[in-house]
Input
Amino acid sequence: MKKIKVLFRHMQTAYGRVFIRSSAYLIFLMISFSMIMAFINYRDEMQAVEDGLQRAAMGHAKLIAGLSVDTVERNDFTTLQPLLEALVSEPEVIAAAVFSSSGQLVVSDGKLRSTGNTPALDPVVLDVLETAEPVVGQSASSTDYYGPVLRDGTVVGAVLVKMSNEEIQTVRTETLLRCLVLFGILMVAFVPLGTYLMYRSTRGISRVTQAANEAAQGFLDPNMVVDADGEVGELQEAFKAMAVNLRKTIKHIEYLAHVDGVTQLPNRLKFENTAVQLIDLSPRAKGALLFFDLDRFKMINDMHGHVVGDELLKHIAERIRSLVAEFFQPYVTSTPFVARFAGDEFIAVLPGMTDAEKLMELSETIIEKIGRPVRIGPLSLIVRASMGIALYPQDGQRSEDVLRSADMAMYRSKEEGRDQATIFNEKIREEALERQKIERHLMNALDNDELRVFYQPKIDLTSGRIIGSEALLRWSNPELGNVPPFKFVPIAEECGLMTPIGEFVLRKSLEDMNRLLVDGHDLKIAVNVAPVQFQSVYFTDRTLGILGESGFPLDRLELEITESSVMDDPQRVMGQILPIKEEGVLLAIDDFGTGYSSLNTLATMPFDTIKIDRSFVRDMAEDENQRAIVQLILMMARQLKMKTVVEGIETPLQFDQLRAWGATYAQGYLWSPPVEYDAFASMVRNGLEPSAGIDASVVSH
Output
């Protein structure tokens, strides 16, 4: 059964070929045409033989009828007997007979009489005697002709002549033999010839069909031979041209799929495929992966537009490619692979490069050269890069693991000040895992009521009284415990949680301060605004909405904005804070001295207070330069008619110096760390406890 199925499949496959199918059609048409023609010829010949027999029978019958008229009337048949016997002696005549007017056989040849084939009263004879019309009968062996014997139109008798059908059988046999001979000639001569001619005519179509099937399976052959004439040749030419164009299109699509359109470097998809070949599929392979991220590149796009940004990316990409080739080529086992991973991120794979010290040395040189100015039209732009380095196989057996390690190292470079390179280590992995855990819990911290607002008293350095506080965010998680702000705030900013958290701090702090205002304590509250909050176009409207709902006196609220967030995009920040400023809210510039603000920017911004960062206060006692900086900031603030808040005061000496230099307000552990609302409210109501070395009158409420 299986063999039959296999044979049937092979027959189906063979029948699918054009020339075989066409040949089958041709053979069928030829045989059908031959059979039809043979049938027509057979029919015509048979008709001619039958007509001849009938004419001969009729002639013999008329002859006998004419000679027997007188003898039948006289009833004298002696003269007819020899005539009938002579007639029967002819080859085609089987028998002959004469009948009387009553239908009785009166005379016949001896054969008919001896066999008794003709009965005394033949129904056909009676019919002829009655109708006076001849009748022709047909049997397998003979053709019978019955004719009337007429005397002046009156029937006086009838005659019968039986003609042999042997000639008809001969004609039938000859016709069958001719058909068989014709069929043999067709099969032996014309069928092979027709099949060959059909093959020659359709060979080009078969090749096109084969090429089309191969193309459907992904194998394009643009070198197909064109060997046919006429329309088939044109079809081959058209298919070949189509294959050539399709191959070019596929190559172009592959190019577009694997090459970055801006930098012309391999793209992320090409990197992933190449990395799998270099790392995943080569278990013994060793090397390094560099992960570059351009620092603050978004600012260039925002300030100068994406056209300038793309042009800068082209220059930086070429610079990275050439620098990697220049510095690492002597240390690798094969050509370094450089690709644009995404946005402002680039990747380099260095097969065979395993010397960590050399990697750091060369990477720092490359980072320094990347940061050199790039000239684009009238602009001279500088962009710096942070780099993460991972080695394989120690930092990952698979390419995605190596990439993840390099990415974590790159983020460590950014956290530690940017514009540097970091080699991955297990500590980075542990911190990344901790970061993931913090992020996972932080997602639900607000909904689970895990966030709290603490307050650190703000002291008037002249009177020593509490004039307000700074609202500070704290987080206590059942699993993680108390998580320091420096750990979770950056994660909240990256995850997009800082906006709702910032609104929570503002709403909660205004609610708490309202409770103290009701008790008659006139206090100010300072609330920090995270840089990412300014990225929302709804910042101003949402902030004004919260302020309106709170009912808190807006002149008692101070929003603290970091120096770096102001300098990132001064115009946008101005556009967002001016409507709030116009409602009476005070503005403070936080962490002053740690950024890169210019005096002109400071003078034109609508700030009311400068907040001096604790890093300057901490080292004042030992560092004369730090003391000079603090004095200069205080003097500048007085000239600009701005109040000052000094953070991080922890010793009486710091307190005395800052009060002597004219600082307005201060906060620090000298008075109190950040505390919960109840503890802060108690300080406000009961006054601060005197600290050693400070006059009690100075620190009393």
The first helix runs from residue 2 to 15. DSSP finds 24 helices and 21 strands in the chain.
